[in-house]
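Worked example

This section walks through a single chain of length 155. The input is the sequence exactly as stored; nothing has been trimmed or padded.
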Amino acid sequence: MEDFFELADESAEEPLCFYSEDIDFELKNKDLIAKWITDSAAAENKTVEGINFIFCSDNYLHKMNLEYLQHDTLTDVITFPYSKKKDSFISGDIFISVERTTENAAIYNASPEHELNRVMIHGILHLIGYGDKSVARKKIMTEKEDFYLSALKNS
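Given that input, the structure is written out below as tokens.
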């Protein structure tokens, strides 16, 4: 984890960065994805300033889930916001288990890329201030995910 934070510090001038930790993973279509994320945030009246996506293994994210959230479960995404809801910008780290998104894609009959994109925009929506702990909030979050995923599909 220390290596990641050293990398993040080196590229602090980039508004959006993609890393992998504990796995060999390279995000496809980085420029298109970066534009999609930036445009999605702008549609929510937010500017992207310092967001790191870290793609990792189930094991890596499980350890983080235990250490930082005290949850002994596998998850597909953990978001650490560094900006506040009232800020005009969003900043934070979004850790994503590629193993989990691939498995979930099979469960939901989606492509691995689609499920990965869903989890990416899910993390962005958390940074913007959306929650998913209640049924009503989860419904809004899913509707926003679907909306922004359709924008990506049409770009």
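What to look for: Residues 135-153 form the longest helix (19 residues).
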